[in-house]
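Every protein is a chain of amino acids, and every chain bends into a shape of its own. The fold becomes a row of whole numbers, each drawn from a learned catalogue of backbone shapes. The protein below has been through that process, and both of its lines are reproduced in full.
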Amino acid sequence: MARDLYLAIDVGTGGIRSALVDRQGRILAFSHQEHEQIVPHYGWSEQRPADWWDGVTATLRAVVGEVEGAAGRIAAICACGQMHGSVLIDAEGRLTRDTALLWNDKRTAPQVDAFAAAHTPERYLTATANLATPAWPAFKLRWIAENDPQAYDEAAAVLMPKDYIGYRLTGERAWDVTEASMSFLMDARSGAWSEPLLEMTGLRRDLLPGIKATHDVLGPLSEAAARETGLTAGIPVLVGGGDYPVALLGSGVAEPGMASDVTGTSTIVSVLHKAPVIDPQVSNVATVEGHWASFALLDAGGDAVRWARRAFHGNALSYDEVTAAAERAGCGAKALFFLPYLSGERFGAAVNARAQFFGLTAAHGLPELHRAVLEGVAFAVRRKLAMLQGGGERPERFVAAGGGAKSALWVAIKASMLGTPYLIPEELECGVVGAACMMAVASGDAPDLKAAVARMVRFEKEVLPDPAWSERYDRMAPVFDQIFDASVGLYGCLDALDGDIEQLVEDRQSRNC
């Protein structure tokens, strides 16, 4: 029987997703099982690795049961997963902590502050390619060492979520370069663990397994894992990669000169380069095919559209109706600007930035307000893109993913704003497709990742810039930047006013007023 199917696993924050994919990149079977996110205190975020494994065994059995003869047709298994979640196991593979600190866990802020007080970015940024933040595994390990020393001392290895699943499937331990590149422990220049960074963070070198390529074979599926999953022992299991870089590959963003726009609640904009862009406001992740993705996160995205729908209509209109209103307004919304920083900024000097409309006149109505919201997010993306280009040229094309890719108007605005064509993938489960591309190479079905992507990634449509819109946005963009820059000095004043209001409320409550 031909080994013509690929078995992909995505260890997501919300649940486990498993899929059977054919040689053309088409998903034949799909299964999802949710798992709980534990929040013991404000700002903490944990999950049980045992729950991930339960989800993997359940979803693998489900997808194999959907396709006749699937168990004998699987050529390889590959997992991608949520990044940065730190799992500690002992020499026998037992968890030394029942829960793992996730990517969005903020309890490590004091460890980051202590590190920043002792080390300026000039000392480490060239090596890490990333600024110190609470997300990185180095600081999660530092927190565990200080607050759960028994778990730290008993640990023989730290693994990322998909690496824990890889260990359960094969009994082998490894990291891949995508995860290692954002650990704050790998030297971006050499691709190896950094002794100076380990010394700066005060962490143990013996906790870190070897770093391998994402599409290397980790090992064969073990007899024990085969019994639990209902599969056949001996199937090659790949090392796998972080969910975001694997999804970049699966969306077709695989060569320098390409870029990605993933707009959900927030927006992640990435540009591929041959080397990381060293800038305190830019994050960098090694990609599956050996390049670097420089990216920026904006809290502005679908959340801005959701806010406008709630604020203007009490959620009474559908999103389609809100978009239809925006379509009735002309390009530029009659010179109305919207700064979309409803939740501030992630990095930079204005993390306390505020949202605002600027330029309102009696001629503006709801259509212009909604259009300005969509354009405001696009202007914010344009601001970030200049940093991500690293002094190079604008990307040749963007690939859109996430919920924002479903809005034809918004994609058209962004294409015109950036003067760059936007492509919409046919299959939006890009992590699954990316994992399948890696398995095609590992199994010998494709000569390299470029060939696998060319065969397995298809685009539903291409959206070209509108020349008239682009000319209008080119004239407006400097004004948007001036409004932002002129407002920065006021954000602290607004913070102080907010504090005065909160204190007034507390005083009134204490007097029962």
